Known about the structure:
Layout: H1 6-12, E1 18-22, E2 29-30, E3 33-34, H2 38-52, E4 56-60, H3 77-87, E5 91-93, H4 100-107, E6 114-116, H5 131-145, E7 150-153, E8 175-177, H6 179-193, E9 199-203, H7 212-218, E10 224-227, H8 232-238, H9 253-262, E11 269-271, E12 275-279, E13 288-292, E14 306-310, H10 312-323, E15 327-331, H11 344-358, E16 362-365, H12 368-376, E17 386-387, H13 391-399, H14 404-411
Parallel strand pairs: 1-4, 1-7, 4-6, 5-6, 7-8, 9-10, 9-15, 10-11, 15-16, 16-17
Antiparallel strand pairs: 2-3, 12-13, 12-14
Amino acid sequence: MTAKTLNDLLSAGVRGRTVLIRSDLNVPLDGGVVTDDGRIRASLPAIKDLADAGAKVVVMAHLGRPKGQPDPAFSLAPVAACMAELLGTEVDLAEDVTGPSAQQKAAALEEGQVLLVENVRFDARETSKDDAERAELAAEMAALAGEDGAYVGDAFGAVHRRHASVYDIAAQLPAHQGPLVAGELEVLTRLTESPERPYVVVLGGSKVSDKLAVIDNLLEKADTLLIGGGMVYTFLKAQGHEVGASLLEEDQLGTVRGYLDRSGKDAAEIVLPTDIVMASGFAKDAEHEVLAVDALITGAHGADAMGLDIGPESAAAFAERIAGAKTVFWNGPMGVFEFPAFAEGTATVARALTEATAAGGLSVVGGGDSAAAVRSLGFEDDAFGHISTGGGASLEYLEGKTLPGVSALSDGVEA
C-alpha cells in the first residue's frame, strides 16, 4: 500500500483538527543554545503548512539519549525557542510527553497554533523493546489528537527506529508521510536504483564496523569508493601498513581484506589515501606532519603518532575523482574537522561536492557528522544537491534494509 502524504491530508481538510507530527529536532546544543539549526529549518515547512491550513499542531521529537526519564540537559526548551524565532510565532512547550501538561496544552490549542511536547525519550516506553509498552505510549500520544486527529511522520532521522512516536503511533491514527521523508526517499531511491554514472561514494567517520553493511552493498552499486576518516586505518593496516596509535579495529581486518580483494573485480574500486596527517596526540594544537602511508611511524613521534586527517595529496586525488562523477554520496568526515589543523581533508571533499553540483551532478551529503561539517566549515546548504537529515537512516536504506518508520506509514490506519 502506498503511503498517504501530507498533501493528501491537507486536501482532506485539517482546519480545527489536531495533527500530531513527528519531526527530527535532534540538534546540537552548547550552553543551552542551538548551534546548528539545519534540522529545525528542514522540519518547519510541514509544520507551517499544517498551521497555515488551520490545524492544531502538536510536534513530537527527541533530543540526545536521555535515560528514559526527564533530564534538563536534554530538554527541548532551546528548540522551542529556536522554532518560534524561525516561524515568527509562539511555540508553546509542554512539560511532559503525554502527561497533564501535554494534555492540558493540547486541549487548549487554537487553530493555527503549535505545541511542542517535551523530549519523547523522557518516557522510557518510547524506545522500549516491549511492543505492548510502546503501543501504550502511542495510544496516549494519539489521545492528544482526539477522535478526528491525524499523524504525520516527517522525522527521517528517526525512521530506522522502531520507536513509539515513529512506528507504533501509525497504528493509532490515520498516518501520512511528511515531505521531508518523501524527499529523502526520492533521493535515496535515485542512489540505489538509477544513479547516473560515474557514481562515487565517499565514506569516512570513525569506525569501519559502523559501515560494514553499506560498504558490502555499495561495492555492487557504485563505481568508486573513496575511504577516509578514522575507518581508513583499518584498511591501511589490512594492506600491511603500520598505523601507529591511529584508530584501529583489529577484529575487522579480515573483513576489510575481503573488501580489498573484491576491489575492481566486478565491484567498485576502493581508493585509499596515499598520505596522512599524523599527529602527536588527539588535540587541536597537537604537533603534526604529513607522511606517506608506507611511512606513518617514521616521523617525529614514531609509533605513538596518530592519524587525524587525510593528507593534501590524497585530498586532491579524492577531489579529482569527485569532480568527474555524475552522482556522489558522502557520509563521514575525512578527519577531525572540529580541529582546524585537521579539517582540510574534509573541507576539500566538501568543496569538490559543491563543484560536482555546479557541473550538473547530484551530490548527496549523508547527514550526521558530514552535514555538521559542511555547515561548520562555512558551506551553504544550497551548494549541494541534497543534505540528508538522517545519517543512520540514510546508511540503513543504502544497506537495503526496510525502515520501520517508513513501512509504518504505508501499513498504518486508513485515513
